[in-house]
Amino acid sequence: GAGVSQSPSNKVTEKGKDVELRCDPISGHTALYWYRQSLGQGLEFLIYFQGNSAPDKSGLPSDRFSAERTGGSVSTLTIQRTQQEDSAVYLCASSRVSRGEQFFGPGTRLTVL
Amino acid sequence: AQTVTQSQPEMSVQEAETVTLSCTYDTSESDYYLFWYKQPPSRQMILVIRQEAYKQQNATENRFSVNFQKAAKSFSLKISDSQLGDAAMYFCAYRSAMNFGNEKLTFGTGTRLTIIP
Fold first, then answer.
1. Whole-number Å distance between alpha carbons of A3 and A34
2. pLDDT-based confidence at B14, cuts 50/70/90?
3. CB contact under 8 A, B42 and A106
4. What is the DSSP letter of A101?
5. Is residue A92 within 8 Å of residue A25, measured between CB atoms?
6. What is the distance in angstroms between the Cα of A84 and the nearest Cα belonging to chain B?
7. Each residue of B48-73: pLDDT tens digit?
8. Spatial contact of A82 and A18, defined as CB atoms under 8 Å apart
9. Residues 9-38 of B with CB under 8 A from A
10. CA angle B73, B77, B80 (to 5 degrees)
11. In this predicted structure, what is the pLDDT of residue A41?
């Protein structure tokens, strides 16, 4: 079946603008994760969803970052008032159950000018 | 908090030879999982191999095997008969098995593996 998909593949925005990044998990996967990969910070966990609830949002770096998941499926990561330090690749992963193998999407490369 | 350290930013190996990538981690937990992920230029992370901490036997997946030393908190990846398609960034990762809701992966900084034809 189809893997995890993310859109857009690349996003260029101006400082101060809001952006939305989308993740479509593998069908039937109940758990969904967002990570950020940047040159300075490496790979960092952002938030974890089980169904539509987020038991762990400890990795969100500031209140400019938020995420939601609807219908136990699609998730959107929103970054408000983007800053240059938000430039990174944002990776989404899903797993069939919590503690299952995490399957990753191809990521969205965000560039903030 | 757990930390994962990969001390080799880059490694290279001749095609068909064997290479070992190093990983150490720090944790106070007794139950956890360790993983090696591969990230080719396409950016998509692919699970290579996983190890449960409670298992003494080292995991093996075809040409990939690990040397898990729990007391030393070491988890190295051995790639045998290296192939051109093995060229990628390799990340070591840790996940707790202790607490419900603690699902996140903690990654090392990665090792870029180059295969020399």
1. 15
2. very high
3. yes
4. P
5. yes
6. 21
7. 999 999 998 999 999 999 999 999 99
8. yes
9. 37
10. 155
11. 77
